[in-house]
Amino acid sequence: MILLLIGTVFGAELPKVKTPTMVELLARAKPTDWRTLDPENTLYVELSNGRVVIELAPDFASNHVANVKALAREKYYDGLAILRVQDNYVVQWGDPDGEKPEVARKIKTARHTLPPEFDRSLDPRLPFTRLPDGDIYAPEAGFSNGFPVARDPGTGKMWLAHCYGMAGAGRDNGIATGGGTEIYVVIGHAPRHLDRNVTLFGRVVQGMELLSALPRGTAALGFYEKAEQRSPIKTIRVAADLPISERPSIELLRTDIPLFTELIESRRNRSEEWFHQQAGKIEIGNVPLPVRLRTALRDDRVHSKAEK
């Protein structure tokens, strides 16, 4: 009888939980619910078809952030190329001649390799909005200053999570063989098995469509087989080094506010008319991170990296 009752309860169609939509929540957002990008920790990646904006995460990978900025400031990346586009995985760029010491791009002031920054110690001073449904790859998952983060209170460690749009430093087999001369961006389903195996140092906040729409490479791991297939990297600059007139005023919804917690709940239980079954759960890779341009505020153009 008990088993029958349990089956009846779980088999029944439960009433939908009414939650506001993301559009309705963002309409309630106050100016203080948004934050602007720090130009000193923002990269502009100029491609032939537009600009990709990357927010850097010095709280999680300070040495790699500093090195990537040093590489950008010595114009190391200018004229390099996108070498690899692997479907449902990553886009990666670097020096096409990197394996040829005699012709490889020379580094002036930055470092070629760094010790890994796979994780860091838990810090109560860093805000953390925890997801209610747990995580497969870690005891806890949530957001800290806008970045997807996993945590393990048992070991006292926290680390950035491989979600769509996250940027990391490519490496060889040795854990200290990366430093930012090769950069990859996740363009597919969150490859969380890479967590704590590669140093993540930032995330794309604008221009993901330019990366995710690139032609896929046909060689192993998505590498291009011919040089003419590669897309050029025109320049990479630290936003602070450009005139204010050349910096779009990008704002991001803060993840340490009650409104963001409401947004998480609204995405766990979609109540729009189209949804007939509410999931009642959400994983870190499916939480949208709203971004807007200040110049677009008057017509309320708001977008996020997540799909509808």
What descriptive keywords fit this protein?
308 residues; alpha+beta; Cyclophilin; eight-stranded antiparallel β-barrel; five-stranded antiparallel β-sheet; 17 strands; globular
Structure characterization notes:
- With 308 residues, this protein is an alpha+beta fold.
- The chain has 2 domains: 17-35 and 251-304, no CATH class; 38-248, Cyclophilin-like (Cyclophilin), CATH 2.40.100.
- 15% of the residues lie in helices and 26% in strands.
- It has 5 helices and 17 strands.
- It has helices at residues 2-11, 22-28, 62-73, 208-212, 258-268, and strands at residues 34-36, 42-47, 50-56, 81-85, 90-94, 120-121, 129-130, 140-144, 147-152, 157-160, 166-169, 183-186, 199-206, 231-238, 250-253, 290-293, 302-304.
- The strands form 3 sheets. An 8-stranded antiparallel β-barrel has the order 2-3-13-11-12-5-4-14. Strands 6-10-9-8-7 form a 5-stranded antiparallel beta sheet, with no helix packed on it.
- The longest helix has 12 residues, at 62-73.
- Residues 1-10 and 296-301 have low confidence and may be disordered.
What is the average per-residue confidence, as pLDDT, rounded to a whole number? 92
**Helix percent band:** 10-25%
Number of domains: 2
In N-to-C order, the SSE pattern is HHEEEHEEEEEEEEEEHEEHEE
As a percent range, the share of strand residues is: 25-35%
Name the CATH superfamily classification of the largest domain: Cyclophilin-like
- Compute the separation of the termini in Å: 42 Å
